[in-house]
Design goal:
14 strands, binds SN-glycerol-3-phosphate, 25% helix, metal-binding, binds ligand L45E5XJ5, EC 3.6.1.16, single chain
Length: 319
Amino acid sequence: MGSANGLVNVQSNQPLFSFGVITDVQYADIPDGRSFLGVPRYYRHSLLVLQRAVKKWNHRRPNFIMNFGDIIDGFCPKEQSLDAVKKLVMEFDNFNGPVYHMIGNHCLYNLPREKLLPLLRIHSHNDHAYYDFSPIPEYRFVILDGYDISAIGWPKDHPKTLKALKFLNEKNPNSDKNSPNGLVDLERRFLMFNGAVGKEQLEWLENVLSDATRLNQKVVVCCHLPLDPNASSREALLWNYDEVMEVLHRYSCVKVCLAGHDHKGGHSVDSHGIHHRVFEAALECPPGTDAFGCVDVFDDRLSLSGTDRMKSTEMIFCR
Ligand SMILES: Nc1ccn([C@@H]2O[C@H](COP(=O)(O)O)[C@@H](O)[C@H]2O)c(=O)n1
Ligand SMILES: O=P(O)(O)OC[C@H](O)CO
């Protein structure tokens, strides 16, 4: 980029900070398999993807790593769940810096929240998994708990489980609540493997966003579940993505939303100029291929350098 005196402006090419990204590792010590729709899944190889990611991150030295959830798979034999999560967390910890984890549906198939959250070092009140942090004064990261209202992860008789089951019964008439059969268009998100952001969390989100506005911070919202139908399959969306988006749209500090869960990945810019990037899954990388990335953060954009199946993406702020 040139400047008025003809010298190259090196400053604008220097990121403020960087962070590594990976999602849906879904490790299990079991043979390769397929998704319900027949997409191959490589449960053991995904560990190698993570190991190669850590090696590359240690070379490139981003400031921190973000894991977008589903650290192990639901098919992991349940007597191995605890050790498998510990093993994967240790692999992440081979990175020379902080690692921030999110929960996903597959984490919750394996372990209840009270066991899972300490292992992932998620210290939120009442077993919730939403939190925020500020890597530099100019930026705020907001991590949403997409399984706050969910039929998985809470005790069977917990009010949140009962609320989620009631909601699913109203919205999805199939006996298999993971089946979208007969559901039309956006209704196809009303599946048991998804969830919602509850009222208290929405209030917390509003408070964080108004605080970020006061501090003149730019906000990156992260959630295992995607928030924008144009970046994701209908079947992968947060149940109340529309309620969350209504809040995000009212705060111009929100620049980018990042997610996992929809394994093929996606990117969109919504009606209010917020970028939505859903990352490609590590689990679905055929042997020898990868899906992870490094995001350089600037004043006016996020720049994702993806490896192999993770597509590189420029996210220039539009608002
Ligand atoms: N189109 C679909 C997708 C999924 N299901 C149900 O969800 C379960 C999990 O799906 P995976 O792709 O992660 O294996 C699956 O066992 C089905 O019960 C579905 O019915 N229709
Ligand atoms: O979480 P999974 O692996 O069961 O898959 C979720 C789907 O990709 C959502 O469409």
